[in-house]
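Hey team,

Filing this mostly as a record. A colleague (T.K.) asked me to run one chain through the structure pipeline before their review meeting, and I want the input and output archived in the tracker in case anyone asks later how it was produced. No errors, nothing strange. Just documentation.

Input sequence:
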Amino acid sequence: MTIKAIGLGQSDAAIRVYVKNRPNLIQFQTLSDTLPLQAGQIAQINAEAGNGWRKVFNVYAKWLYQLAPSCLALKSADTWQQFRDKTLLQNDSQTALLFSEPDVTDPDAALHVIAGKTHAKELAANEQLGINLIWLNDEFAISPAQRIIVCPYFDYRQLNNAKIDILCELIHTHINL
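Output structure:
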């Protein structure tokens, strides 16, 4: 079963983050594909959709900047903030923020990061998806063969700096990037 990626970013991204909800803006409610963002669009979403989305984008950029500063078009950014503003979720960024279910039928295609334990458990309960998670603790789970990592939701309190360190370590240890 092939699942169509619906969300923001590059449709064939190497790093795909899955969240349950979309920004509460009219243009995203009927989105049926992956939409690459343009420069300045993250700031626009932050202004219109609220502080929660600012946190998601900031944590996403911060995590990637720590995970792989020598790849993913990060070389051109001196800070995670520059990466967020100039590259994250844009064409050729190798990043996506998806509202659809993960397609793990081609495990070499991408790193799948499911943000949030509740969302991950709901996805894993759908037997058609075939997601097999090994829970390491109450917040993190892995499926190395499917290239899946579950982590806390992308919010400063839930995925703080210490937990970003854990997420990076799990990826470096269990997933070949």
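Quick notes for T.K.: The chain has one domain: 7-174. The mean pLDDT is 90.
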